[in-house]
Design brief:
The chain has about 240 residues and is an alpha/beta fold. Helix content is about 35%, strand content about 20%. The chain contains eight helices and nine strands. It starts with a strand and ends with a strand. The structure holds uridine-5'-diphosphate.
Length: about 240
């Protein structure tokens, strides 16, 4: 049984075509990809969902808000996304549980490691919401931290917007940018490559947790990444 944490940005739930913060068609696409991957068996899947489509703590802080208050708004945004994703995955027949790092008993279960692992063993897709429950982080770091805590094999960092891995230069600005098939953590740190937040990168390095960065929006790609196929870029 392969145990995986998938990190999904909030913006992956938004629509490039419309102004929707949470786009039903996009969420349904992601849910279908997740359900199809689960249906093939051999997989325990936890999802950490971001909130950048709704609010980013840093945005409020730049406008003069207290950083901690602004980050709590961001964490609440991740819960909204998690509930949208839960609903969509369940409409495709897969049981799910949302577990939050901030307690909100009427909405979702609190995060308890042993309970999360039990859900995974029972074939439920577990969606971790509210990041780590602490301000001054983005959801990249809880993706790495939860992965270590539940003893996942890999963190899958799903991208959107057409970037299908890690490049030496920004591929949207440089036509000659070259994609890496594989990188070491030290190379990512030395070149300051934008894989995940640096806090998450150093955490993964210290805990020997590989990260695969891949294009989440290409049909079938999530299944390939979950199967361990060499899509995108592997950092280890
Ligand atoms: N956040 C936080 N602590 C955490 C995780 C998230 O304070 O452990 C806040 C932070 O303000 C962040 C926001 O929640 O900007 C949304 O998460 P993120 O920026 O990671 O969303 P994504 O870019 O993945 O959509």
């Amino acid at each position: 049984m392969r145990r995986v944490v998938l990190k999904l940005s909030g913006e992956a739930l938004a629509s490039a075509a419309s102004d929707e913060t949470i786009d039903a068609t996009t969420v349904d696409f992601l849910a279908r990809e997740i359900a199809a991957a689960m249906d093939r068996g051999g997989l325990e899947l936890a999802v950490v969902v971001g909130g950048g489509n709704i609010w980013r703590g840093a945005t409020g802080a730049m406008a003069g808000m207290n950083r901690a208050s602004s980050d709590i708004m961001g964490m609440l945004g991740t819960v909204i996304n998690a509930l949208a994703l839960q609903d969509a995955i369940e409409s495709h027949g897969r049981p799910t549980r949302v577990m939050t790092a901030l307690s909100m008993d009427q909405v979702a279960e609190p995060y308890i490691r042993r309970r999360a692992v039990r859900h995974l063993e029972k074939g439920r897709v577990v969606i971790f919401a509210a990041g780590m429950g602490n301000p001054y982080f983005t959801t990249d770091t809880p993706a790495a931290q939860r992965a270590a805590e539940i003893e996942a094999d890999v963190v899958l960092k799903g991208t959107h917007g057409g970037v299908d891995g890690v490049y030496d230069l920004d591929p949207r600005a440089h036509a000659d940018a070259v994609r890496f098939d594989e990188l070491s953590f030290d190379e990512v740190i030395a070149r300051d490559l934008r894989v995940m937040d640096m806090t998450a990168i150093t955490f993964c390095k210290d805990n020997r947790l590989p990260i695969r960065v891949f294009d989440l929006m290409a049909p079938g790609n999530l299944g390939r990444a979950l199967d361990g196929a060499p899509v995108g870029t592997l950092v280890r």
